[in-house]
Automatic annotation (TrEMBL), chain A:
<keyword id="KW-0812">Transmembrane</keyword>
<keyword id="KW-0813">Transport</keyword>
<keyword id="KW-0249">Electron transport</keyword>
<feature type="domain" description="Cytochrome c">
    <location>
        <begin position="178"/>
        <end position="252"/>
    </location>
</feature>
<dbReference type="InterPro" id="IPR027387">
    <property type="entry name" value="Cytb/b6-like_sf"/>
</dbReference>
<keyword id="KW-0472">Membrane</keyword>
<dbReference type="GO" id="GO:0046872">
    <property type="term" value="F:metal ion binding"/>
</dbReference>
<dbReference type="Pfam" id="PF13442">
    <property type="entry name" value="Cytochrome_CBB3"/>
</dbReference>
<dbReference type="InterPro" id="IPR005798">
    <property type="entry name" value="Cyt_b/b6_C"/>
</dbReference>
UniProtKB/TrEMBL annotation, chain B:
<keyword id="KW-0249">Electron transport</keyword>
<keyword id="KW-0813">Transport</keyword>
<dbReference type="GO" id="GO:0016491">
    <property type="term" value="F:oxidoreductase activity"/>
</dbReference>
<keyword id="KW-0479">Metal-binding</keyword>
<dbReference type="InterPro" id="IPR005797">
    <property type="entry name" value="Cyt_b/b6_N"/>
</dbReference>
<feature type="transmembrane region" description="Helical">
    <location>
        <begin position="193"/>
        <end position="215"/>
    </location>
</feature>
<feature type="transmembrane region" description="Helical">
    <location>
        <begin position="96"/>
        <end position="114"/>
    </location>
</feature>
<keyword id="KW-0812">Transmembrane</keyword>
<keyword id="KW-0349">Heme</keyword>
Length: 254, 224
């Protein structure tokens, strides 16, 4: 630290008065076409960031964050799945050389070597060369690692039936069903129950709770069928049909 | 006026060196996409930081509604998604941001690796950067449990089995994370919450500060 007689400080602090050490060099003294960070370059970064943010917000609006049913350890046959960026480690544990008795190889040894190598890269690749073509060992090891990660991730995700999975784990709203209502009487008198369940939860047919169809469409479907549901299922009066349709359309509505 | 305020503060606290480090420095030609379009690869680090800021802000707002408790965690997330104004967007930002930040980190790491920018004198900054990568992965892992849906619960059971398989310390590591040798439940959720919201962000902030101070001290690596 610079000391000496004649130095003046602000108050009794250690901040020097009339300090000109920090006057920066003129930008023209740097090589090449440099640009000041503040404010010129920051403005460009700001613009790039704004474009990125708009794209990111479009993603969040277009694809809402998923939420499955509340955690229930007794859910039968649930296949655990990590977030996509852990799929490659998860896939590794499926291979016989890295599971069962050798699971330590899959959970500790291989990831440890890979990430340890990444951490210590500057001490493993010590030469002065920076160009990737001039350090073939480092470059090829990294390329192999990238290919392996992509391959394992792809292998893991191609074994998942994403659509069935999403369907099975969808949140089903609990709707109070008034079994005394006229609509439910019609529902139980007709053959609806055998396919759509006692609580309209769906058995061989789909759940009717919160259906997207309007009352008029439901009337049509009850008579003429839809998809694998045959026509002529409903055999009551028009008045009963109206009650049934209103009952089903009213379920799950706020 | 602003200049006067600046001078008044500067005379007392000597902030000019700090200001220079943060803002008043030159951007070399080879990292400026305005001069060389291929220099966009230098954006990945900045975008990682940008998404990290999004994660911090959206996460702070999420904790205004989230309840780290097995009875209410799922319900609070459901309520946030369904009932709270823009709740779905805030949670969406945090959910997708977790993926985007990993992608950006991956690209940034590859840029630094293939350019050999980790070589002398920047070895220490590379190590700090890889540690940041680990912290970010751990944040993703712990955050996955917090909505307390089936996906979260069963994935965490697997995570804990993996932790248990570590030789010598596995058993203790599992109990440290889960709070119990057998049950994945209330203790696990609060522990993962504490790790996700306090421990790992603290580590993240320290490492990020060291990362940025070293960048400013050493400057950006030169052109290839």
């Amino acid at each position: 630290m610079h000391r000496g007689k004649g130095m003046k400080f602000v108050g009794d602090s250690r901040v020097r008065e009339n300090d000109d050490r920090h006057i920066p060099k003129d930008y023209s003294e740097y090589p090449g076409r440099t640009e000041p960070f503040w404010p010129n370059f920051l403005l460009k970064e700001w613009l790039a960031g704004a474009v990125f943010l708009v794209g990111f917000l479009c993603l969040t609006v277009a694809a809402p964050a998923p939420l499955e049913k509340m955690a229930d350890p007794s859910t039968p046959g649930y296949i655990p799945l990590p977030d996509w960026y852990f799929l490659f480690l998860y896939q590794l544990l499926k291979y016989p050389f890295a599971s069962g008795d050798y699971v330590v190889i899959g959970t500790v040894v291989i990831p440890g070597l890979a990430f340890g190598g990444l951490l210590l890269a500057p001490f493993l690749d010590r030469g002065p060369e920076r160009r990737p073509t001039r350090r073939p060992v480092a470059t090829s090891l990294m390329l192999i690692a990238i290919v392996a990660v992509f391959f394992l991730t792809w292998e893991a995700s191609s074994h998942v039936d994403w659509e069935t999975r999403a369907e099975q784990n969808k949140i089903v709203e609990d709707v109070e069903i008034d079994k005394e209502s006229e609509g439910y009487q019609v529902y139980s008198d007709q053959s609806c129950m055998s396919c759509h369940g006692e609580n309209l939860e769906g058995v061989s047919g789909p759940s009717l709770i919160g259906t997207e169809h309007s009352a008029d469409e439901i009337k049509d479907i009850a008579k003429n069928g839809i998809g694998s549901m045959p026509a002529g299922q409903f055999e009551g009066s028009d008045e009963e049909l109206q009650k049934l349709a209103d009952f089903i359309a009213g379920l799950g509505e706020e | 006026m602003l200049q006067k305020i600046y001078d008044w503060i500067d005379e007392r606290v000597d902030i000019t060196p700090i200001w220079r480090d943060i803002a008043d420095h030159e951007v070399p030609e080879h990292v400026n996409p305005a001069h060389h379009f291929s220099a966009f690869v230098y954006c990945f680090g900045g975008l990682t930081f940008f998404v990290t800021v999004i994660q911090i802000l959206s996460g702070m707002f999420l904790t205004m509604y989230y309840v780290p408790d097995i009875e209410n965690a799922w319900n609070s997330v459901f309520y946030l998604q369904q009932e709270v104004a823009h709740g779905q967007i805030v949670r969406g930002m945090h959910h997708w941001g977790a993926s985007v930040v990993i992608v950006m980190l991956f690209l940034h790491t590859l840029r630094v690796f293939f350019q050999g920018a980790y070589k002398k004198p920047r070895e220490l900054n590379w190590i700090v950067g890889v540690l940041l990568f680990f912290v970010m992965l751990a944040l993703g892992l712990t955050g996955y449990l917090l909505p307390w849906d089936n996906k979260a619960l069963f994935a965490t059971e697997v995570t804990l089995q993996i932790a248990e398989s570590v030789p010598f310390i596995g058993e203790d590591l599992k109990i440290l994370l889960a709070g119990d040798p057998h049950i994945v439940g209330a203790q696990t959720l609060t522990r993962f919450f504490a790790i996700h919201v306090f421990f790992l962000p603290a580590a993240l902030f320290v490492l990020m500060a060291v990362h940025f101070i070293m960048i400013r001290r050493q400057g950006i690596s030169g052109p290839l």
